[in-house]
Amino acid sequence: MHGGKALVKIFERAGVDYIFSSPGTEWPPVWEALAEAEERGDNRPRYINCRHEALAVAMASGYTKVTGRPQAVLLHATAGPLNAAMYLRAAYQERVPMVVCCGETAAFGEESRLPDPGNQWIHDLTDIGGPAELLRRCVKWSERVTSSTILVSSVERAMQIALEPPAGPVLLGVPFECLLDEVSLPEDNRPNRVARAIAVDEAAIQEAVDLLLRARSPVLVTEHVGRDASAVNPLVELCESLAIPVMESFRPAFLNFPRNHPLYLPYDPRRIESADLVLVADAVSPWYPISKGPKAGAKVVFLGDEYPYSRLPFWGYKADLALIAPPAATLARLLGRVKASEAFAGNRPAYEERSRRIREEHDKQMTTLERDAVEHKNDIPVDPRWLCQALNESIPPNGVIVEETTVHRTLIQNMIPRTQPMSYIARVTGGLGVSLGYALGAKLALKDRPVFVLIGDGGFHYNPVPSCLGLAQEYSLPIIVVVFNNQRYLSMERGLLRYYPDGAAKKSGVHFGSPILPNPDYRLYADIYGGYGVRVTDPKDIQPAVARALEHGAAGRLAVIDVVLSDFSPR
Predict the structure, then answer these.
(1) Handedness of CA 486, 488, 489, 491 (dihedral sign)
(2) If DSSP codes are grouped into helix, strand and coil, which group holds residue 8?
(3) Is 265 strand, coil or helix?
(4) Degrees, nearest 5: CA angle 349-352-356
(5) Structural contact between residues 451 and 530, judged by C-beta atoms closer than 8 angstroms
(6) Residue-by-residue DSSP string for 312-340
(7) Are 533 and 560 spatial neighbours (Cβ–Cβ below 8 Å)?
(8) Which string of DSSP letters, residue by residue, matches 395-426?
(9) How far apart are CA 429 and CA 163, in angstroms?
(10) Model's pTM, two decimal places?
(11) Would you say 426 and 251 are in contact if contact means Cβ atoms under 8 Å apart?
(12) Distances in Å between the alpha carbon of 132 and those of 14, 91, 458?
């Protein structure tokens, strides 16, 4: 068969549900193979025609985060990987597996037995080293197919590398000639069966249990353990058994622990500094700066499937014991050992007392947040605290939040507490512009659940908005976008005033890099793409706007709710 058909067949055998693509002229063999499959009634993998390379990668990321199943992405030569670079870097940092194939050429029209790919390949569609070299630092692994004879084995190997812990995106440059050429794909599908060591040895588990049982003021810090939904319940049960308070540090990207749970507390570095045991559950930055960590003599136990984060240029945290294995399995074993120990049974009164104290602190902090919100419920412009409170009362329990704000992230985490795994997804990297694609991927996987994008107006500008909303309309994926519109890049403005509190900017009121003016009427985007758009300036209109957006979503129409905010932000 020709290489394009083989590529589709490989994806099918690997269990890929969707091919996400912002295509170029090098993919006709794949399109022909998909058309043949549709004629036969084969509907897997399905093709999603994205309108921007960034959207293709972000949507694949969102889908995989929710389902755990890696997908395929096809990008145009040169422009494709360059436009997708930040989004691939995000998937790399977030350990999201996917296989990205980028077009290139191997013969530049000099292979006479194959159709001519066109002279555009000489002057504007190629780079030295190809796409693999362009994006080598943005993906887990990158390489190029050098011959049609190794196309099949190269793609199959790329799928395996993407999944190998720590997982991540891989990029394969695929010459147009390899897609046109005949290749051999064996009829019998013999996938590799890989048996990995997934368990920490018994002695290390017992050592961790002993440390947990001896601790008098433990704390657990997490950021990403919820990437595996099966890890959440054993984490909750372990913390409940030992009365361990839970905090999420700077960049939680998933629902790691139910945020309305009595053991859940807003992040406070003082609790780290006073702890005698810090259990770090897959947190890249459990405290900052690194020098201001736990007190002398305190123990640090790390659990996760990657250590010490080789993707990062610097990571100076120290652990007394690192348990490197899938966290769900490690947590289950820790829990079983704890409950079977005599020390656990004898210490139950102490655990109950500690749990009571933490619950009181949790309730006090949540009550304070709600009281502050209610005190500002009538403010115009809308106070962000009341916006979060109103959203918490309006978003259904089965709603999924995709968050991409900067200054309001902590407020959203604490005031719109999600409780179920994969009910909250956020960005990890410093790059804005991923949330609409993530949300569309999540909606594709969870079509019966409402998906809300809570996004700052600055972040909204960095997303490929027309491409994302156009795809939402085309594929009937009605996301609900809530724009936190404070008419500025408040994070940058705060930095300016923090570093120069008595400077010219403070005195003059001229804050370069901050204003987003004239302020756009974001609701009109919804009109363009057949959805519901509303601009909210009165706080009383927030909940009715969400209710109407949900009605439109049930009818298959997207929504954009533009909420004009004051410049308050938690510090």
Answers:
(1) negative
(2) helix
(3) coil
(4) 140
(5) no
(6) SS------SEEEES-HHHHHHHHHHHHHH
(7) yes
(8) S-TT-EEEEE-STTHHHHHHHS---STTSEEE
(9) 21
(10) 0.95
(11) yes
(12) 22, 16, 31
Check if the beta carbon of residue 423 is closer than 8 Å to that of residue 372: no
Q: How far apart are CA 522 and CA 532, in angstroms?
A: 11
Which of 431, 398, 411 lies closest to 550 in space, CA to CA? Answer: 398
- Rounded Cα distance, 48 and 282, in Å: 33
Residue 295 CB coordination number (10 Å): 11
* Edge-to-edge strand ranges of the sheet holding 424-426: 424-426, 400-404, 451-456, 480-485, 559-564, 532-536
DSSP assignment string, 77-119: STHHHHHHHHHHHHHHHHT--EEEEEEE-SSTT--TTS----T
Residues 434 and 429: their CA atoms lie apart, in Å, by 10
Query: What are 41's two structure tokens?
Result: 């009634």
Exposed e or buried b per residue across 91-116, where buried means at least 16 C-beta atoms within 10 angstroms of its C-beta: bbbbbbbbbbbbbbbbeeeebeebee
Strand 480-485 relative to strand 559-564, pairing: parallel
Neighbours of 316 (CB within 10 A): 9
Residue 251: its pLDDT value, please?
A: 84
Can you read off the two tokens belonging to residue 469? 């909303």
Which two structure tokens, joined as six digits, stand for 68? 């755990």
Can you count the helices (H) and strands (E) in the chain? 23, 17
Among candidates 407, 417, 402, which has minimal Cα distance to 365?
A: 417
CA dist., res. 333 & res. 335, Å (int): 5
What's the confidence (pLDDT) of residue 197? 67
* Closest listed residue to residue 212, CA positions, set 305, 352, 286, 321: 321
The single-letter code of the amino acid at 286 is P
Take residue 371 and report the two structure tokens written for it: 């009281």
DSSP state of 295: P
Residues in the chain, pLDDT under 50? none
Buried b (16+ CB within 10 A) or exposed e, 506-516: eeeeebeebeb
Are 471 and 477 a contacting pair, CB within 8 Å?
Answer: yes
Q: Which of 455, 460, 431, 426 is nearest to 87 (CA)?
A: 431
Give, in degrees to the nearest 5, the angle at Cα 414 between 400 and 59: 30
Q: What percent of the chain has pLDDT over 70?
A: 99
Dist. CA 196–CA 164, nearest whole Å: 10
Residues 358/541, Cβ–Cβ less than 8 Å? no
